Amino acid sequence: MSRTPAILVFFFTSLFFFFFFLWPIGETIRGAFFTADGQFTFLYILEVFRNPIYLEGLWNSLLMGVFSTALAILIAMPLAFMADRYYFPGKSLLTAGILIPLILPPFVGAIGVKQILGQQGALNALLEGMGLVCASSPIDWLGESRLVGVIIMNALHLYPIIYLNLVAALANVDPAMEEAAENLGCTGFRKFRKITLPLIMPGLFAGGTIVFIWAFTELGVPLMFDYGRVTSVQIFYGIMDIGGNPFPFALVAVLLVSTVIMYATSKLLFGRNQHAMMAKATSQGGPRRIPLLPALCCTGAFAGVMLLATLPHMGVILVAFSNDWYQTVLPADFTIEHFNDALGHNLTLPSIRNSLKYASLATLLDIVLGIAIAYVVVRTRLFGRQILDAMAMLPLAVPGLVLAFGYLAMTQEGKLFGFMNPAVDPTLILVIAYAVRRLPYVVRAAAAGFQQTSVTLEEAAQNLGCPPFRTLRKITLPLIVANLIAGGLLAFSFAMLEVSDSLILAQRQADFPITKAIYELYQLLGDGRFIASALGVWAMVFLGVTIIGASLILGKKLGAIFRV
Amino acid sequence: MISIDIKQVTKKFGSVTALDDVTLRVEPGELFFLLGPSGCGKTTLLRSIAGFYVPEAGSIHFDQDDVTRLPPHKRNTGMMFQSYALWPHMTVEKNLAFGLEERKVPKAEIRERVAEALASVKMEDYGDRRTAQLSGGQQQRVALARALVVRPRCLLLDEPLSNLDAKLRLEMRLEIRRVCKSFGLTAIYVTHDQKEALSISDRMAILERGRIAQIGTPGEVYRRPRSKVVADFIGETNFIEGVVAGREQDCLVVKTELGMFHGYPGDADWRPATDEPVTLSVRPECWRLSHGEHLEGPNGIKGQVGEAVYLGEVAQYRFACQGQQLKIFELNPQEDIQASDVIREARVEPRDVVVLPR
User: Fold this and answer.
1) Which of A266, A307, A536, B204 is in the most buried spot, having the most CB atoms within 10 Å?
2) Of the candidates A459, A465, A471, which has its C-beta nearest B52's C-beta?
3) What residues make up the domain containing A413?
4) pLDDT digits (tens, 9 = 90+) for A27-56
């Protein structure tokens, strides 16, 4: 690409980022530090730290972030090692299946968890049946320690992110590094701690950071557990009166600043030393065959985690099919009534239509922006292209809740973006919100494609008389189409089941996307949770069909889609 | 057939000067080589001719047309890439048809010309293959056909044989020359393999750190190098340092630690003054080694064979003389000479001694 179009792309993407990434964050910060009549104040922030309710929320959010991440690492680390080192029965299927929880909405899964772990739920029923628990005083698994349930749910949803990063990092470790350690007499756990762990630390850090930020500000799961004592939920409830109340602003600002501080600190502690591998692997690495029994243990571990992680969703499916499920291990009797009810409810069909509309428009926007950014970053030597690259990755580091809140604040009537007011029509702002949050996946996918595609393939076309733009269309894009589909699919799936933007920005029933419809249905008394589950199942089926379809188009194994 | 005129071209990458005031002219129909060690600027020059780089200063002309600022797709050059750059998502035929489609050639004619081009590189049976299914040599032929089928104004070859095994390289370099000559194309060929350049080029330019060190036919460059760099890069040689002691017409007399030598300057126009320090370059195969007999003529030295390698058609010796180690090759050796303390004579004709600036 010659300079002028590259500069134009740079300019317009920067503009987009300024208005739809920096601006909403700035808008929130402003709300936290300025009174309604424009006076600077520090009182709101101070009040957050004085108010015991807000303080407790922050502390619980921190616990939620730290323990979700730790648990996710505990789950992912052994799996990643097994996948990197050994062959075992069913490996290709299981390494793909282990990623499924990533795209299952944890928010929907929470319904299943409550059904299984509730006081009158399946687990207590099972224990009663075994005579371990008395029916009159069931254990309240989700009562005082609901936070534990939230943490388990988060970890089971997010471990694939760490797993993917670890597998990539382990594949990069030259086997000779470990052999050298063994040669010098260092084996087993010592070898892991002194050699392997430091070498894969950057990968672990990268995955861990994303998971921490995600869990620290998770909104959907605590909301479904009806657990209000975390900051994210407090912000959500605070939004009801955004006009007059400055505390949601202050909470969001505190959340953002603490994310940044924690990110910087952990980067200083863990992410500092990026050990460059001196040379390409000298000896043949790759997994090796092991005896049947340990191999079966690996299979078991994978299958077990997969089962555990999908258990909430199986719960959801059961809820959706059950007529009545109370104090029994399995539902008393089954029905497909809820699916009809779900489709018949006046929230359902419009919400599916809305989600499809928002998600596909957002994906389209992501693909266009992603190709443009990746092209400039990989293929040009434009000054500042690394800044563009870093900017495109930033949405991963900023909590979705913060952005969602910022969008809401900046589109209030009378503001610069008042014409996008979601109370009037949220389509534009929701599409942008979905797109900004998912842009990193598409940019990474497209950039990987450009990097894998030798630039001489483009030069050859130009040499034969093909102008640059047509070269992009006829040579480059067909060569990276698999990457684009993979990135676009990930963006689409996440957008379909997006929680924080959807709950906060969609305000009129007619504009609800699926997630907000599920949330609203769940609030209904009576058979609300059954209908919500049925809609959740519809969403999962829909997502499954999309992904399987795309994997068929790609002609690759399912897992390959997620190796962005 | 076109001529290619490169006038005072300078190209920089940041603070690195890749091409420094390069001027050369490639005659119509010539097979011209750019030769030099890696990083010398030869590929930069080729890519500037193709249009992938725009030089900071100077101009490039195809015949009378100034193409210096013309984008690559408007230059109508046929380039063959080191990696071949065959598009993996197209068949062989589609790869060849691409350039013709860009030129809006009618469908029927495209079919005809693609078939013709495939035949000219003996690949007519492979049209519907995917490029990944071809061997290295076959890919190389397809890349050549793809560059030729559009009837380019000139052919640009960027180390086209470096990914092939040794035997195939020998075969393909003759093939490339045959194709270039039968199409009557002006061609520029970049390589770091001096054997390729010596064997098939009409003329060559040796580049060194972005500058042209010498331009000439293979014979000129090999026999009359003008600098130590060129003498060292092309073939093997012995350098002997000395100072000019006198002159006998065109012949220079040079005093060295090994004795007096008679020789001729590599650059006939260069006339070093008496007492000017110079370096002599003597190719190993130019020496005659005595097998006990006395050798007549000038330029004689005495020493011992320190190391001998017998290779059949040639024997290679390391000849120790006054503390210096010289390489001496003897073609068609009649006698096994072993390393020994026997003092032997070696002699070289004055025309084989090239006097170079130090």
Assistant:
1) A536
2) A459
3) 3-29+58-279+287-562
4) 888 888 887 777 888 888 888 888 888 899
